[in-house]
What we know:
Layout: H1 3-24, H2 28-34, H3 39-46, H4 61-68, E1 81-87, E2 89-93, E3 96-111, E4 117-122, E5 129-130, E6 135-139, H5 142-167, H6 174-199, E7 202-204, E8 209-211, E9 221-222, E10 229-244, E11 256-261, E12 264-281, E13 286-294, E14 305-311, E15 315-320, E16 326-328, E17 331-338, E18 341-352, E19 357-361, E20 368-372, E21 383-385
Parallel strand pairs: 1-21
Antiparallel strand pairs: 1-20, 2-15, 3-10, 3-14, 4-6, 4-9, 5-8, 6-7, 8-10, 10-13, 11-12, 11-14, 12-13, 15-19, 16-17, 17-18, 17-20, 18-19
Amino acid sequence: MSFWKQFAICLVVIAAGVTGWAVFVPGARDTLRNAGVPEALVGKAIDPDNVGRAAPAAGSEQAGNRRSGGGNGGGGRNGAVLVVTQAVVPGVVNDRLGAIGTGDAIRSVVVTPQASGLIREILVKSGDRVKQGQIIAKLDSEEQVIVKGQAEVALKSAVEKSSLYNNIKSSVSRMDVFDQEIAEQNARLQLQAAQLSLDRRNILAPIDGIVGIMPVNIGDNVSTTTPIVTLDDRTEILVDYWVPERFANTVKVGQAVEATSVARPGQVFSGAVEAIDNRVDPASRTLRMRARINNAADELRAGMSFSVGMRFDGDQYPAVDPQSVQWDSQGSFVWRVAEQKSHKVRVSIVQRNPDYVLVKGNLDNGDLIVTQGLQRVREGGPVRSEGGELAAKEPVT
């Protein structure tokens, strides 16, 4: 077969493919027009029955039906395209914030002894609730008991001698009486020091809290830097989390938060913002925040991970059905129906949701937007709507 015959066959096949695509694919006419194909050829491609004979008169019923009918929006009354519309509803973005944080007790103290020595007695166990000032453990105190006894004896002697000097003031000098009074005061101070040293052999709870696991045992030799136990006051939990920089001027102290924990799935704990950091982290571009969560039922523990949620007023945009958004060479648009005619409105997409698309454009709440029958809709063309008109009142988030 010669080259020219093969070339001719290829042209025929291509022409047939283009014609079939133009006839059966919705939106083919707009594509051909945008590609620069003359209107006469576009009409022949869409309506092959007219090939080889004159087209019907422009005002005839047949021509009118072909221009406005077919597909889902086939010809209707007075040539109007049948479409389904849906009302524009308000949509809100940036109205919610979710973050992951770590919880800590409202107060947490690592207890260390105030003196060095051997542990003689442990009076609490892990999980016990203790009150402030309650004895947790005791160190050996034999030496301190002896020192206290010596101080008591010295004080007794000083008091008796001072009393004797006061009774015989006429026989002793005033200086001797004064020196004895000083000696009595020193003896009292020595007794107080001995009592303080003895009291420090008891390891006390500095706060109300719950006892953790104790890393020491009876007989261990401890110093003032040895951790004896950790006490947690978890009547409230502090959750530290980080929010994006764009919320820096939106969040406020006292703002309500909701937190959920992996340990308590499905249960929501309410709280409020306790503190906001004074600077944004330059590495992560996030702002540190701290929320206070009520834990009166003692269901939460320090160190738990939390999913923290916050709500804001947000930014409002028109929300339309995803099917209504169309595209051409200039970008995205929707068809708005006003006075039974269709009008193209340019929009830019702000956010996509499963049920709605939030857009920015010249649209008002309640405007009717075409969602079905889009293939035959034209600028300024007549349309009629049957069913499918929804006018939701609640904002879309």
